[in-house]
Design a protein that fits this description.
The chain folds into 2 domains: about 260 residues, Alanine racemase (TIM Barrel), CATH 3.20.20; about 130 residues, Lyase, Ornithine Decarboxylase, Chain A, domain 1 (Beta Barrel). By secondary structure, the chain is an alpha/beta fold. Strands 1, 12, 13, 14, 15, 16, 17, 18 and 19 form a 9-stranded mixed beta sheet that branches. Helix 3 links the parallel strand 2 and strand 3. It contains 12 helices and 19 strands.
Amino acid sequence: MKRPFVTLDQLRSMTEQYPTPFHLYDEKGIRENARRLKQAFAWNPGFKEYFAVKATPNPAILKILREEGCGADCSSLTELMMSDRSGFTGPEIMFSSNDTPAEDFKLAAQLGATINLDDFTHIDFLKETIGYIPETISCRFNPGGTFTIGESTEGFQVMDTPGDSKYGFTREQLFAGFKKLKAMGAKRFGIHAFLASNTLSNEYYPTLAGILFQLAVELEQETGCDICFINLSGGVGIPYKPDQPANDIAAIGEGVRQQFEKILVPAGMGDVAIYTELGRFMLGPNGCLVTKVLHFKHTYKEYVGVDACAANLMRPAMYGAYHHITVMGKEDAPCDHKYDVTGGLCENNDKFAVDRMLPEVEIGDLLVIHDSGAHGFSMGYNYNGKLRSAEVLLQEDGSTRLIRRAETPEDYFATLIFD
């Protein structure tokens, strides 16, 4: 059974200060998760987690993670700016982008970020844009074909067909790209790949590591390039449903270590650093969306209307994704009522749950929608003129802190020109 990291009494106190809906994050859980990950890869002296900023782009969250030794994985100009303002410097920033504008590359180079190229043609584009090729450079690999392992937490795997993915170099392009980059002045190289999303399998990272480690050996032997790091990217999922088993990050780290000892060490590459970019795994379970019940609708189904909507959390509407819901104060009550839990958008897919069995719900009840700590607030939008909600941090000492205020109508109209 999923239990919220917050109590009803705590939420009642919070809602006196922060009107619902709002996203709530658990500092204690975030720090504990970061430490578990670090311990799982402690066998690799160069290990570093580069948190995927796109998952939860908030300076307060980023600063907590930086204090825990994490870097920042950025994919846009504004994510680079946010990471810089949050205290990340130089190689603490990884820039992995696609279809990249020149100004993004310019800022990444100015900040001293490690640039991870997505395409062979970007080699020349980068040189033309910033005037040189950085001495440390990375390239994203796409093996093509299909990749299936374990279970996706959505019931399907979002990116299990690399051949249909817009990202990365082919194998032939990667070998040619390394040779070209070396000739243009690059001295230290990295490999990056992301083959499956949201996997519930302790075998995903070790399997991916085996592919990349073997590729690294062959690349170094054929091109003479010094491969200094291998970035396993993201893809380690979380159990959105109560009956799904959680990944064991210690077992995952040990599986990667075994591949490292089997493939890289015999090839004389035992000094290669391992990097990760775990947004969802790091933050997903450590955030929730808090919303209040406003209305009931009794037609062909029983509907519970809440003050949040898909503009606050779009994953259920976009993917049909499951997010567990707790009716606060009724955690142990029987789930003997069937509801659709809906928001107020003019779209019929604006539903947080369909045919969900819950305890009997009453107007004014507070609902916690679990696992929204990653790709929750960050995917928000303003359709129907809906305003983005506040973000609140539950600190380790039990106090709360507003880390992003709610938008106002003035914010919505600020960019419009009426004349």
